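Q: I'm teaching a short session on how sequence maps to structure, and I want students to see two examples side by side rather than one. Could you give me a first protein with its sequence written out and its structure tokens following it? Keep the formatting plain so it prints cleanly on a handout.
A: Of course. Example one:
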Amino acid sequence: MKILLTGATGYIGKRILPVLVEMGHEVVCCVRDVKRFHPPASIRDKIAIIEMDLLDEKSLEKLPKEIDGAYYLVHSMATTSDYERMEHQSALNFKEALNKTNVKHVVYLSGIVNESELSSHLSSRKNVENLLSGGKYHLTTLRAGIIIGSGSASFEIIRDLVEKLPLMITPKWLKTKCQPIGVTDVIAFLTQTIFNSETFDQNFDIGGPDILSYKEMLLEFARVRGLKRRIFIVPVMTPRLSSYWLYFVTSTTYKLATALVDSMKVEVICRNHNLNTLLGIQPLSYRESLKKAFLKIDNNAIVSSWKDAYSSSGINIAISDFINVPSHGCFIDHREKLIQNREACIEKIWSIGGENGWYYGNWLWRIRGIIDKIVGGVGLRRGRTNKNSLNVGDALDFWRILYANKSEGRLLLYAEMKLPGEAWLEFKIKENKLVQTATFRPLGLMGRLYWYSVLPFHGFIFKGMLNALTKGN
């Protein structure tokens, strides 16, 4: 069957794609930026790729007419205050475009929306479901709660809280009940639902066997990790204070933290488990899902991470707009040093960031990350998705990867920290030299003042980093 896959660069999209190909389907991947799409080499010749934006009706004209099914895996992570309108318009445009094709079945992954009073984020999900249900095709909506898997937003936030805080003073929403589900089970439900006529024109809740409060989830996570943690719930933390608490302790953005806090006040518990019986799926327990996630992490086999989505930085860029580093009107720190071993130098560059740090002055990088958090930025906590590989579009601490070609020996990063301007950091092997260039395009007087205020540290940090990258090479 020919299947249209939206959100192919997203957390779920990256994981379901190889499964669909293995099942024998012909998959058409819809992406906003083809430079951010990195399917496994083993399936590249078995898929088609379309670059389009659901908010741009004209780009939707690229959709093939001859398709049998489609997945709608597009969600806003509340990067702007206008996300409800954007989700509404995206769903409307998608429905109208699909009505011009031969598609028979659409599967939409949504959130559990069983309460009478919903958060803005969950209300938006319900609105999208209502819009998509008005098409000429059959719609099946799978409503999931907290998704647990290596790299998922929920998993990483829980991990941040438990591993960093031996003692937690927490808001009262930690008493809220939810029904977490492992990401492998989500993929199983999605792939076995498509084209199953018994699921047509219905919605189903999907969840694991455990109903837990958020506090119980944190404590169970601690037990799995062999950590002793104490949690105290206080009633005095307002939604705003709760959002700040979540934002500063975890790697989430403030806007996402606000949306999460708003949603975490609502119970997300399955109405029934009818789909389990229909498809013959028995989901893993919360504890089993955690262990499976850590097995992936330990084996460095994280397929996708929410941090690689632009929502993790609160900005929306097109890589092509930034890949050509400017020089006019910019401040540039350019350094070169001879290398003896090209391969060893490249390996160091490709291991930069995350747990490895930046090779020199890491305490200054950490201070810069703290300052960035204070002013509303992403900080350093995003780390890196994979210890061995870097892909265009991935997050790397408070940078975004614009270009990464290991054989060429070139890595280009764009800063997503809060700055009065724009910044790039480039590493390039040229002949027998490592060329390291930091470029800053200031925005007005504040941008220039910022550059000169940090200039004394550049000689220390950038020189030390260059020496460390070339040492022993």
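Q: Perfect. Now a second example for contrast.
A: Example two:
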Amino acid sequence: MGGTVLIAGASGIVGGAAVRHFSALPDWKVVALSRRVPDFAFEGAHIPLDLMDADACAATAQEHFGAVTHLVYAALYEKDDVIGGWRDPEQMATNDQMLRNLFGALEPAAPDLKHVSLMQGAKAYGVHIHPLASPAKERWPRDDHDNFYWLQEDYLKERQQAGNGWTWSIWRPHLVTGFSPGSPINMLFAMGAFAAISREEGKPLTFSGGPPFIQQMSDSRLIAQAFAWAADNPSASANQHFNIANGDIVIWQNLFPAIADHFGMELGPPRPFSLAEAMPQKEEVWQQIVRKHDLRPSNLAEMVGASWQFADFVLGFGKKPSATVLSTVKLQQAGFTGCLDSEDAMIAWFEDLQAQRILPR
């Protein structure tokens, strides 16, 4: 189909993958929005924009958004207390307002707008609040809990009732993986740094979480492919919710041998402990690694930050989690058949981070 895609959250895991994917496709022009410049080169325009600044959104829309045909909204505000923030009213209100500021400015400025892709996630099914009756399906009634997902979704539906002809797709991945230094929910950066620090200290790689349970991964590259599929298949994607995952299942204890092998380490016995408590104390060790391997200058706080908290949650530290699986049958039946091996994708991301001198070889 082609067109001009506006990607909000362009420096994040999902937004960055969307920028890369669309800018590599013929017939697409990319306008990338984020407060900081993406950490990669791409074909297209980058506009620094604070989505909480309604006046700046309005001015930017008048100047730059006239040709926009598609919106990928992957912007996200997270608090320093990542897990607690998921139920925080202020965080919900901020994420709601960010979308309202951008879309309220975009819609009147972009008369040819055709489609909006909006990110949600497994928290739509309440996985952060209660056990999930896996596999979660899009046709289930809305889970009754406070969530900015519902605020954003209801706003889009209200705007659509004005009859301007555009449609939406809402995407629900589980455990998104990809490239985004400093993201507060980046499992790969946390695992890569944890492995590197353990190796530098002469320790084996030790699983730090709780009991085994089944999960999934959703690679950001796969999500970006789905955005493009939705743009090219309007009849299949219009006004639909889609779960999206790589296509296999993940048990993190079973991934640790591959992580240890990739970093040339021994695998130690499981030892539950909090990465969020232990790893921020390892800054001196990290700086030794940076110097020894000639890595890009960085510190753990800016590279991993709150992702240590997220890693504790994903690995099940201190809890007895239940299986978290999203059915992806609806998306496959609609015509999107992309899939990835989660272990292979994880190792490929480690290799990419090593090639960019962010993680040591």
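Q: What should students look for in example two?
A: Point them to this: The two ends are 41 Å apart (CA to CA). Also worth mentioning: Strands lie at 3-8, 28-33, 45-47, 70-73, 115-119, 167-173, 176-177, 218-219, 240-244.
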